[in-house]
């Protein structure tokens, strides 16, 4: 039986996610409804993607009983309220990253999922790319020996995009880009909490972080360095250094299609999209969608590939990094 998807929000990332779903077998994944706060936007989205049911409010989508899981593609600052709406309506939910604005909100979402006995996953799509799966396999078999250092960089000049620069929209380099670097580190170190966190950076004139450098120290003198920026182009790669060699994601580390292991490069091409995409490599969103389907078929409430504990750790470390750099959101003052 197909997994029946509802799409919450008719924005750019929801478009790309819908296109990615179309690359999967129709017998496995079907998009049955879309909702937007503007009915006309939802209708235009439905027409473009041939989606049968259209709603002009998220509440209507939450009441639709013929949906197995909802994809939430709203802006960062709306993740908590929108996520809770669907979770309390006993819907399984996949929420775009970051799961919420801070650790308090993340815990509220995972607790709500637990209370309502439904599935919840933060949409860290990178975790489910074939490249990431191969990295996990290589580390598991000790391909590069004991890991000593992880480095991950992600940055581009993006200050022309309002949602990335406005505090009230959850802007800033950490929440949008740094999360990809940190999730890579925590994937390599199996969700271990660092012993120390040191963050340095600066804020742009809107009060959000423009560039942040994070240095994490783990047990056994293992280190990680993450750099993220919305003000400059970085190398956008990731490197794992071990006692017996290196594993490198040479580019597009957040949506990787190539992997270099001790100098040998392997390509992992993505399927072609049926419609133009808003973001690079977005057909790779198919992998997280399939992960959700497999979890639902097994009646799991969280994914082992992106468990709640990792979402908690990501939020905790980003909260501390923001504190050190001096970035606060309105949500931080709510107890």
TrEMBL record:
Ranges where the Gfo/Idh/MocA-like oxidoreductase N-terminal domain occurs: 4-121
Keyword Oxidoreductase (UniProt): yes
E.C. number(s) listed in UniProt: 1.1.1.179, 1.3.1.20
UniProt keywords, alphabetically: Oxidoreductase
SUPFAM superfamilies named among the record's database cross-references: Glyceraldehyde-3-phosphate dehydrogenase-like, C-terminal domain, NAD(P)-binding Rossmann-fold domains
GO molecular function, one term: trans-1,2-dihydrobenzene-1,2-diol dehydrogenase activity
Catalytic activity: D-xylose + NADP(+) = D-xylono-1,5-lactone + NADPH + H(+); (1R,2R)-1,2-dihydrobenzene-1,2-diol + NADP(+) = catechol + NADPH + H(+)
Family: Belongs to the Gfo/Idh/MocA family.
Protein name per UniProt: Trans-1,2-dihydrobenzene-1,2-diol dehydrogenase
Species of origin: Salvelinus namaycush
UniProt gene name: LOC120057905
């Amino acid at each position: 039986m197909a997994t029946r998807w509802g799409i919450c929000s008719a924005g750019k990332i929801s478009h790309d996610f819908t296109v990615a779903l179309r690359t999967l077998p129709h017998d496995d994944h079907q998009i049955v409804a879309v909702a937007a706060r503007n009915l006309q936007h939802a209708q235009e989205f439905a027409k473009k993607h041939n989606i049968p049911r259209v709603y002009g409010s998220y509440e209507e989508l939450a009441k639709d009983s013929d949906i197995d899981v909802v994809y939430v593609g709203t802006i960062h600052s709306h993740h908590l309220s929108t996520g809770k709406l669907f979770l309390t309506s006993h819907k399984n939910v996949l929420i775009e990253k970051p799961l919420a604005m801070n650790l308090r909100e993340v815990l509220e979402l995972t607790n709500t999922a637990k209370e309502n006995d439904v599935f919840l996953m933060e949409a860290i799509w990178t975790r489910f790319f074939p490249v990431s799966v191969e990295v996990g396999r290589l580390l598991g078999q000790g391909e590069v020996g004991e890991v000593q250092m992880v480095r991950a960089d992600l940055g581009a000049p993006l200050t022309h995009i309002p949602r990335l620069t406005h505090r009230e929209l959850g802007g800033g380099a950490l929440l949008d880009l740094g999360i990809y670097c940190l999730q890579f580190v925590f994937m390599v170190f199996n969700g271990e909490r660092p012993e120390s966190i040191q963050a340095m950076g600066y804020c742009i004139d809107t009060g959000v972080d423009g560039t942040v450098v994070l240095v994490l120290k783990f047990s056994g003198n293992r280190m990680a360095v993450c750099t993220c920026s919305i003000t400059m182009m970085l190398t956008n790669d990731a490197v794992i250094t071990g006692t017996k060699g290196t594993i490198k994601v040479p580019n597009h580390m957040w949506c990787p299609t190539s992997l270099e292991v001790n100098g040998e490069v392997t390509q992992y091409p993505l399927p072609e999209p049926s419609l133009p995409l808003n973001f690079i490599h977005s057909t790779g969103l198919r992998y997280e969608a399939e992960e959700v389907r497999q979890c639902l078929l097994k009646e799991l409430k969280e994914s082992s590939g992106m468990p709640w504990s990792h979402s908690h750790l990501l939020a905790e470390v980003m909260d501390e990094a923001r504190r050190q750099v001096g970035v606060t959101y309105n949500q931080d003052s709510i107890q």
